[in-house]
Amino acid sequence: MAVTVSPSSGAAARPITRAIRESLFAGVISFGLFFLLIGLKTDQNIRNELVLVQRWGLLAAVVLITMAGRFLYVAFGQPALERRKAAQANAPASTAEPGFIRRNFNAIGIAALFLFPILVVSTAGLQGSLKWVDNFGIQILIYVMLAWGLNIVVGLAGLLDLGYVAFYAVGAYAYALLGSHFGLSFWILLPCAGLMAAFWGVILGFPVLRLRGDYLAIVTLAFGEIIRLVLINWREVTNGSAGISGIPKVSFFGLMSFNISDDNYIGKVLEIAPSGAYYKIFLYYLILLLCLLTAFVTIRLRRMPVGRAWEALREDEIACRSLGINTTTTKLTAFATGAMFGGFAGSFFAARQGFVSPESFVFIESAIILAIVVLGGMGSLGGIAVAAAVMIGGTEILRELDFLKAIFGRDFTPELYRMLLFGIAMVVVMLWKPRGFVGSREPTAFLKERRAVSGSFTKEGHG
Amino acid sequence: MQYFVQQLINGLTLGSIYGLIAIGYTMVYGIIGMINFAHGDLFMVGAFIALIVFLILGALFYSVPVVVALLIMMIVAMLLTGLYNWVIEKVAYRPLRGSFRLAPLITAIGMSIALSNFVQVTQGPRNKPIPPMVSQVYNIGGISVSLKQIIIIVVTAILLAVFWYLVNRTSLGRAQRACEQDRKMAALLGVDVDRTISITFIMGAALAAVAGTLFLMYYGVVSFSDGFVPGVKAFTAAVLGGIGSLPGAVLGGLMIGFIESMWSAYFSIDYKDVAAFSILAIVLIFLPSGILGRPEVEKV
To answer: Going by C-beta distance under 8 Å and a sequence separation of 6 or more, which residues neighbour residue B164?
Structure first.
């Protein structure tokens, strides 16, 4: 098939016949996949016995949708994609300067993030802003921070860590326990939680020093599970799966508090009406600053010897060792630094929720954070932030889609489909961009100039 | 002593189930070098298919002999779970073959999330209990062995024998081992690599489906989230035995089963998983490529 050059008239007809065949095939396959799991539903009757409920209509609908989707993809999607690819390959490499937005992407992004609560409060009012600032702003920023922390381990040092959520848990429990038992303030406990998480990072780092790739992955996964299981079972200290509640709130550096009963409640100090929104807005700026701290430290570390050692380790461990880099300390510092940011995020999480339980630190969280790092294009801070916004914001939006109830009936709960769509989105985005949103990175080490070498420059022989 | 032997039998039963799942991990790893994270959820899908087949059989016939029912459940579960894994490989892993290492891992995690939530959406979030299928318990010299345990051990042994024959004595197995060693060379010598990989996925899923059916029979209950813990344990088993090595997967499965049952019998049932994971970490410190795994030698 590859040898003969088909005439252009035949090429137009062929995708359609192929698409029909493919869609029939897809229909048969999807019928095989779904006829038991969708066509029949197991339900409990009054006597608590399982009975089967038949749903052949739904099954037919799903199979038909699959067939139609496959048909459209093969008939129109694939040729279009191929045409675009061919067009891209033929087009001359663009040498145009990136536009204003792209050049100042980071500055604009940060400014927008700082203005976000003001914008929301001015449009939705103080009470209406709660949802947007809390569910979207804070939630996404927590994941941004976690992903940036994990990025140090996975993106920079190239160590696959599937148990990152353990450090998040250590930070959260450190603040929850020390804060509620000893009444220490958040500002003292934040560095403590970071240090503790870093300590656990080193503890994890030691046994895995010799491991690589997938062995490393399973041990880190096991480590995350061990921490979670200890949190569940060590009931005397952690209160088991019931969790710890009544975790103290963060204060404004001790000057103002967000507890309405306190004398220095923010509403009384500033003489404004009491509202729960102040605390959320304060937390929003807090996590934003913590994120920026993470980004700043990462950027600076990349220019330091240790950061370069991380990246060298990621590229080639043997070359790294033969150049005299101490891989032991390099790996341990990567684990410790990454874990420290996880710990910061954890103590912030505990302060925000006021409640922690082992339920929040399951493996799937680690997987989500790792997915954000990879989808963002490992090592690229901007890409990771975009990936976090897309993945976390996307699933949060699904919570808001109540209008779908009007279409699909009262029983329809978009909530249920949230994680299903999240999983599918992970697969689709990865297939679409296997190298992540931002595939290239700027070099940290360079000979003369950081900028990508332009065409005119190479002519002079410096390329 | 009796107590010890009793625990040994419990451990053997658990270990058989883990071993069956672990083979799927290790085979896929051996042939394309990726962790099929969705494998644990395939095990759960297998259990659900078996559950639905069980209910259909109950609804259609007044009574079916247990052996026949189990056999039908197993075969249907094997076929359909194999189909699931075949589709997953084609959709989510094949396009990323040759891409960088973490990409298929992420799609595998995505598939795992999607599969378990798919079952939650279609079958509901509740536990699904079934009436006990077999309840005989034999007492041999003070040691009680239930028929369930005997079935599990016997089925596992038969399957392992068949499987061993397939991998070591047939041309399919030869093709698989060739792909494992050098995919490009195997392709040059006329092995259909894509087909071999597909069959590997189907075989792994079929074994996981058997494990799921046995799990359903043993515990009498299954829920959409049941894939994760056995999946992680089996993955641990595969790594412990040396990932990529088939005897290693079985050995690792049995070890994890024994560690768990012994730890819950003599120490504390709460910390049995902690014990299994800690022993994994300790073993890997001394044997960084598992017990039977070949050390990865990187040529420079």
So the answer is: B246
**A190 min Cα distance to partner chain B (Å):** 28
Residues A32/B80, Cβ–Cβ less than 8 Å: yes
- In angstroms, the CA B44 to CA A181 distance is 42
Yes or no, beta carbons of A37 and B235 under 8 Å apart? no
Q: Do B277 and A378 touch (CB under 8 A)?
A: no
Angle in degrees, 0-180, between the axes of helices A277-303 and A381-399, rounded to the nearest 10: 150
pLDDT above 70: residue A11:
no
CATH topology of domain A105-432: ABC transporter involved in vitamin B12 uptake, BtuC (1.10.3470)
Nearest CA to A341 out of A187, A160, A143, A207 is that of A143
Question: ∠ CA(B246), CA(B248), CA(B249), 5° rounding?
Answer: 70
Q: Could you tell me which chain A residue has the CA closest to the CA of B45?
A: A37
Q: How confident is the model at residue A407 (pLDDT cuts 50, 70, 90)?
A: low
pLDDT surpassing 50 at residue A452: no
Inter-chain touch B114–A423, beta carbons under 8 Å: yes
User: Taking all residues of chain A, what is their mean pLDDT, rounded to a whole number?
Assistant: 82
pLDDT of residue A455: 30
Has residue A98 got a pLDDT over 90?
no
B300 to A318: CB separation less than 8 angstroms, yes or no: yes
Answer yes or no: do A371 and B109 touch at CB < 8 A. Answer: yes
Percentage helix, strand, coil for chain B under 3-state DSSP, each rounded to 5: 75, 5, 20
| Dist. CA A175–CA A170, nearest whole Å | 9
| Residue in A closest to B92 by C-alpha | A427
CA distance, residue B121 to nearest chain A CA (Å): 6
Instruction: For this complex, say whether ipTM is above 0.85.
Output: yes
> Which member of B35, B114, B121 has the closest CB to residue A214?
B35
Question: For the segment B137-186, what is each residue's pLDDT rounded down to a tens digit?
Answer: 888 878 888 999 999 999 999 999 998 899 889 999 999 989 988 888 99
CA distance A318 to chain B (A): 8
Kindly report the average pLDDT of chain B as a whole number.
89
Give the residue extent of every domain in chain B: 2-225
For B32, B167, B243, the CA distances from B27, given in Å and listed in that order, are: 9, 10, 8
Ranges of each domain in chain A: 15-81, 105-432
How is residue A260 written in tokens?
A: 């309405």
Query: Do A161 and A211 meet the contact criterion of CB atoms below 8 Å apart?
Result: no
Task: Classify residue B238 as exposed, middle or buried by CB count within 10 Å of its CB (0-12, 13-18, 19+).
Answer: buried
